[in-house]
Amino acid sequence: MLRISQLKLPVTHTEEDLKKKIVHTLMCRTEAVQSYEIIKQSLDARKKPELFYVYTVDVKADNEKQLLKMLTRKKRAGNVQLHEAMPYVFPAGGNEKLKSRPVVVGCGPAGLFCAYFLAEYGYQPVLLEQGAPVEERQKDVEEFWKTGVLKPDSNVQFGEGGAGTFSDGKLNTLIKDPVGRNRKVLEIFVENGAPKDILYVNKPHIGTDILRTVIRNMREKILVWGGEIHFHTQMTEVLFTENTRRIRGIVYEDLLKKEKEEIQTETLVLAPGHSARETFAMLFGKKVPMEAKSFAVGVRAEHPQELINHSQYGDAKASLPAAAYKLTAKLPDGRGVYSFCMCPGGYVVNASSEEGYLAVNGMSYHARDSHNANSAIVVTVTPDDFESDHPLAGIAFQRELEKAAYKAGKGKIPVQRYGDFYRSVTGKEKEKTEAEVWYQGHEPCMKGAYEETDLAGIFPAKISSALVDGMEDFNKKIRGFSHPLSILSGVESRTSSPVRIVRDNHSLESVIGGLYPCGEGAGYAGGITSAAADGIKIAEKIRQKYAPFL
């Protein structure tokens, strides 16, 4: 196989144009190209409004080695090389016999993918999720957005698929992956209903609507392969052997029947979401080693999508997807401010999971067709900001902000124009910018009721000041970003887990034998793909140690 990189074509190109470009690059006959596969597609907007797609493709062709020799001889082989595909391989099974079925707690990406692989290879996992299956969960969430009536165990944070189910469904990750887990995650998504282009676009996303279908299809396969799934089921206690401090089982509660049961297992995968605060408290009480970790807090910022499109694409007339951005700033005090979970053509959603506390998140459908772009604009906070060295101090910090947000918005999403926020923080008036035309009629795109109020009072002064400094810095990169009519809402507090459940770097187990902390909630991932890949890593460790039941 030949891999060709840096194939550049106008964004208006056709499939036939790409085929011709491949043939031209290889200097061969059209018939000599047997097939090709797009490996990567990225957008080059450096010369906007002239925009280009840049491709990497794998090509099967006649006489590949001779072709490459000819190209080398003619000094035309700079972007062509022989390539051998190295697909992901799940490891061989171990020899130790399991006395009981593995238990996976949490049905977010980490737990779902861990259970998926264990089920496929004959380990008959038991998957526990305190929330609802995705179909029921969707109804609960939409009812919450409509009425404000929150179900503590079935909401944007809890339920099948995890918090990412109600997000933009981004699948890009910065995690290096020499063995191919990230690619395997995307392939499994495609096998279960995601569009094939997520395998090659530079910044793939599914969207909340398609992601729900994928999750349901994965669930059905786990069941067909012999797995077992219990919804509305919360782990309430972990059980250890008396002398060796190994896992011997758990106690769980059926939240509908209000009944508790014990299940025996020597293999427990802990894949809680980043909002599993009761679970973290229980584990701390059982002396499971954990530590506070840094995360970020801030607001959601909404801008007209057309403003972002113009900034990223210029006056390009081609039909292009809603534009995204990624912004970072380092403040003089060393604190970082950055955009997070940017949602082109998206919605700000009420993402609360506890009565009396309010958090927001961003969400997009696959089409990304709302009239606003939104992103979290967040400030890094570290354990030094928590004013306590307690492992759960970050949770207390989050709750303090969320309680203030709930109070400020009277139970609704608190919203404020940036100009008013700027005045409240700095005592100065915010001047209008040259982007005035984009802001005519600019209103929130939100799921859930909202209330105009003062956001600055929610945060410590140093956080509010950092948010202003970040917004002003970002305006240098996207003109109009800090326009006084841009819309802020809060509080964005669930950017990542405030806790890390400590595990060994090699075995991936806690010091408590048989306990495997896993995924974003445990502190080992950040996003759908990296969490899913971590779930696969844990499944690999179980596979390498134990023989399957079948």
Account of the protein in words:
This is NAD(P)-binding protein. InterPro entries: FAD-binding_protein (IPR028348), FAD-depend_C (IPR049516), FAD/NAD-bd_sf (IPR036188). Residues 294-495 form the FAD-dependent protein C-terminal domain. The protein is of the alpha/beta class and 550 residues long. It has 3 domains: 2-82, Alpha-Beta Plaits (2-Layer Sandwich); 101-174 and 216-291 and 501-547, FAD/NAD(P)-binding domain (3-Layer(bba) Sandwich), CATH 3.50.50; 294-492, no CATH class. The protein is 28% helix and 26% strand. It is built from 12 helices and 26 strands. A 7-stranded mixed β-sheet has the order 15-16-19-14-23-20-22. Strands 8-7-6-12-25 form a 5-stranded parallel β-sheet, with helices on one face. A hairpin with a 2-residue loop joins β2 and β3.
Major sheet size, sense and barrel closure: 7 strands, mixed
Helix count, DSSP H or I runs of 4 or more residues:
12
Q: Calculate Rg over CA atoms.
A: 25 Å
Looking across the biggest beta sheet, what order are the strands in?
15-16-19-14-23-20-22
What's the β-strand tally?
A: 26
What portion of the residues fall into strands of 2 or more residues? 25-35%
Global geometry = globular
What is the CA-CA span between the terminal residues? 37 Å
Question: What is the helix fraction of residues, given as a range?
Answer: 25-40%
Number of domains: 3
Arithmetic mean pLDDT: 95
Q: Which structural category do the helix and sheet elements fall into?
A: alpha/beta
Unreliable stretches covering 5 or more consecutive residues: none
Protein name: NAD(P)-binding protein
Domain FAD-dependent protein C-terminal: 294-495
InterPro entries: FAD-binding_protein (IPR028348), FAD-depend_C (IPR049516), FAD/NAD-bd_sf (IPR036188)
